[in-house]
Amino acid sequence: MTQDEMKKKAAEAALEYVVTDSIVGVGTGSTVNFFIDLLAEIKHKIEGAVSSSEASTERMKQHGIRVYDLNAVNELPVYIDGADESDHYLNLIKGGGGALTREKIIAGASDKFVCIADESKLVDVLGTFPLPVEVIPMARSFIARELVKLGGRPVWRDNFITDNGNIILDVHDFEILQPMKTEAEINKLPGVVTVGIFANRPADVLILGAPDGAKTVYSK
Ligand code: 5RP
Q1: Mutation test of ligand 1: which of 32, 56, 57, 206 has the most ligand atoms closer than 8 Å to its C-beta?
Q2: Are 82 and 32 in contact (CB under 8 A)?
């Protein structure tokens, strides 16, 4: 089975978390794209969606799914999004697609965060995937030096501007043994908009697509 087929299995399994007549939080990425395509088939059962990126907004609008501004929404029972890595406590690395800031906002605003991924994303320790950090452009060099002091090797993501007009530093060679602590440390650097560690608000449910079906892991 291909990685895409496993992503699709996870996306299919996430449909059962969609609450009828509610607004669904929708993330970004190739796994979420499968989810959006499936959500389109039941769009008559939901009121609409809030979106974590221009790309997901565009895809949902093409399907005729109504997309709301988060400011217009009081209740968000569930948020469905992918991840670049998850540990066994459902702490995540996100931001491979560069949408980490809006993703973190929607995750924070939702009652339940359901993460969908293929099984290769489950790791013992976060950090093999380079950690994305969204940074205000003028702070780029300063933040890069600070990230080096923390032990990482930041690389400026080429030709990439986020939906919020900022840049991304991808931090390589950075083993994240204490996700909550590292998230807080990087967050407090002036000029950092968002760090792609989701430990303060981890996923509540992780659905992993695998060759023998989708497996669900709940947060401890
Ligand atoms: C985007 C993300 C994605 O969820 C993450 O990169 C996973 O993407 P994919 O589903 O394509 O593997 O955080 O910012």
Answers
A1: 32
A2: yes
- Measuring CA to CA, which residue among 141, 185, 209 is closest to residue 2? 209
Q: For residue 26, report the distance from its CA to the centre of ligand 1, in Å.
A: 12
pLDDT digits (tens, 9 = 90+) for 99-114: 999 999 999 999 999 9
Q: What is the DSSP string of 103-144?
A: HHHHHHH-SEEEEEEEGGGB-SSB-SSPEEEEE-GGGHHHHH
Q: What is the pTM of this model?
A: 0.97
Average pLDDT, the chain: 97
Q: Which two tokens stand for residue 176?
A: 């994240």
Q: Could you read off the pLDDT of 111-162 as tens digits, one per residue?
A: 999 999 999 999 999 999 999 999 999 999 999 999 999 999 999 999 999 9
pLDDT, one tens digit per residue, over 6-16 is 999 999 999 99
The best mutation among 28, 33, 51 to test binding of ligand 1, ranked by most ligand atoms within 8 Å of the C-beta, falls on 28
Residues 6+ apart with CB under 8 A from 49: 23, 24, 25, 26, 39, 60, 65, 66, 67, 68
- Cα-Cα-Cα-Cα torsion 211, 8, 29, 44, nearest 10 degrees, comes to -160
The answer to whether the Cα torsion of 171, 10, 28, 87 is positive or negative is negative
